[in-house]
């Protein structure tokens, strides 16, 4: 069993979506919220730090110009708000860091993986950052199962380097005043997280129905809403239909019937 922050989030949101997207790898049938802006900001901050400083106005201007974003006050604002949060005394940070950790005993076995937006080492901390361009959805990072998985993944690295682990979410939207409380797990919390992950794997292995949540708000954002028999927000799939196979609406009706 493989776990990641995104798959764990999908499982907690809807078992049917988990079946379609994670276990079966079905191509999305419907459009969902666009990740383009978030991906752009992540890539831009990686580029900014790799080639200079986020506090160097001339460097920022050159990067934005090179990306065709010189006139974008929104993107410039994201970078400026990050610069106020960036550790001033950190060593060179690592960006887009991929980590994996295998759990064998006690069973069940599972592999956990994640990609961290940035990791800074400063003041005795292994300081992991996750950049967010939306609105806060929690008050404490410790309350997000995705962050708990990331903490469990990073714990061996922090321990090997003799550093204290901290996870922080940077919410970079203009309307956000404060970030959620960072998460600095102790040994007992890390043991509890491992038990939580084991419980999730057991639950997935024991699942047989993979029923949908049938919640209109949740379903309206689902990329499988038009082919899910439990959808509370039906739609028409955007899949291309081969010639002679009928319309997308007819394909959707056949999928629901099955």
H/E order of the elements?
EHHHHHEEEHEHHH
Kindly state the number of beta strands.
Answer: 5
What's the mean pLDDT score?
89
Report the C-alpha radius of gyration, rounded: 21 Å
- Helix content range: 40-55%
Work out the helix count. Answer: 9
Which residues form runs of ≥5 with pLDDT under 50? none
- Spatial separation of the terminal alpha carbons: 28 Å
Shape: globular
Structural class: alpha/beta
Q: Hey, roughly how much beta strand do the residues contain?
A: 15-25%
Sheet with the most strands, sense and barrel status: 5 strands, mixed
Describe this structure in words.
This protein has helices at 5-13, 15-23, 36-51, 57-66, 73-85, 145-160, 187-206, 216-220, 248-257, and strands at residues 2-3, 94-103, 110-122, 125-132, 164-171. By secondary structure, the protein is of the alpha/beta class. Strands 1, 2, 3, 4 and 5 form a five-stranded mixed sheet that branches.
């Amino acid at each position: 069993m493989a776990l990641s922050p995104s798959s764990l989030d999908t499982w907690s949101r809807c078992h049917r979506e988990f079946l379609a997207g994670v276990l079966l790898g079905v191509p999305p049938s419907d459009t969902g919220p666009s990740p383009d802006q978030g991906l752009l900001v992540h890539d831009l901050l990686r580029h900014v730090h790799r080639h200079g400083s986020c506090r160097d106005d001339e460097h920022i201007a050159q990067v934005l110009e090179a990306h065709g974003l010189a006139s974008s006050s929104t993107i410039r604002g994201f970078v400026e708000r990050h610069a106020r949060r960036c550790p001033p005394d950190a060593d060179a940070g690592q960006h887009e860091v991929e980590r994996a950790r295998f759990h064998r005993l006690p069973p069940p076995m599972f592999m956990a993986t994640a990609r961290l937006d940035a990791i800074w080492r400063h003041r005795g901390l292994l300081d992991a950052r996750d950049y967010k361009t939306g609105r806060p959805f929690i008050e404490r990072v410790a309350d997000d199962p995705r962050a708990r998985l990331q903490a469990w993944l990073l714990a061996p690295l922090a321990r090997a380097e003799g550093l204290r682990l901290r996870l922080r979410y940077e919410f970079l939207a203009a309307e956000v005043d404060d970030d959620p409380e960072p998460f600095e797990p102790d040994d007992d919390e890390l043991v509890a997280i491992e038990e939580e992950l084991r419980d999730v794997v057991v639950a997935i292995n024991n699942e047989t129905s993979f029923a949908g949540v049938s919640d209109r708000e949740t379903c309206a954002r689902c990329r499988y809403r038009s082919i899910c028999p439990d959808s509370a927000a039906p739609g028409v799939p955007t899949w291309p239909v081969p010639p002679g196979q009928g319309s997308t609406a007819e394909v959707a009706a056949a999928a629901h019937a099955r």
